[in-house]
Amino acid sequence: HRPDLPSTPMDEAEGKRIVHELQVHQIELEMQNEELLQARAEVEDSRNLFRELYDHTPVGYATLDRHGMIRRINLAGAELLGFNRSGLMNRQFALFVSEGQRRSFRAFLEGVFTAGVKKSGEFSLPAVGGAPLIAMVSAQPSPDGRECLLVLTDITDLQKTKEALIQNEALYRNLFENAFIGMFQYSPRDNRLLRVNGAYAAMLGYGSPEEMLSTVTDPLTQIHLNPRHGLENIAHAELRTWHFTEQPLLRKDGSTLIGKIAVRGVFNPDGTLEYTDGFVEDITESIAAEAAW
Question: Whole-number mean pLDDT of the chain?
Fold first, then answer.
């Protein structure tokens, strides 16, 4: 048995130094642990906030894997598809697309994963117990290419409005082209005829609307016997009301007629005058008949 060696002042100082360093290290570890706990709490808060935003945003979101299986979907997305979320998980998203578009959707999704870029398309979703919905589907692949985020927007009402506008445009075009009264659209900014119908072209002696549009390059001087009348029509159109007047107009051969004119302004969203709509009736003979009386 070896006898204990007596401690020396140097040994005690070294021990105190080591103990102090250990205490400092322990304090540093405790501070780091507190920082980690705080960071973990912040991450958890962020995760909860993301989950809250993801679930309750009014826009539909869904995450698909490369096989088109639904891995995640929010409440708005589930509502668009007409099912509870629990009934959608791990099911093919294509099954909730109208049958006639399923092949197109699968090709769309494959194109997103293959190209690795965002793509958008319109697809019909057969709502349960109701009319089908039209959804704008925007697909963005994840950075690792293993999943794809879908953004689903119900554009059914927008599509119906678009179709109604197309139908109204077709109806207006039919009325415009086949009306017995002269009709025109005129751009005051460019002093240019935008559109004339056959009745107006024939009234002024042109063979067709196309001939009149290509020939009349300055409507104020080529149509109005007095250009001031044309400027008056524009000024009244800017008052956002119909303007009715009778004015002498020039035919292609230089002769004149008396036109009964109705003009109104059509305005841009910012309130500026875009063009004028006009109706013209040739009342030359009726004016002459009244004068003969």
Answer: 86
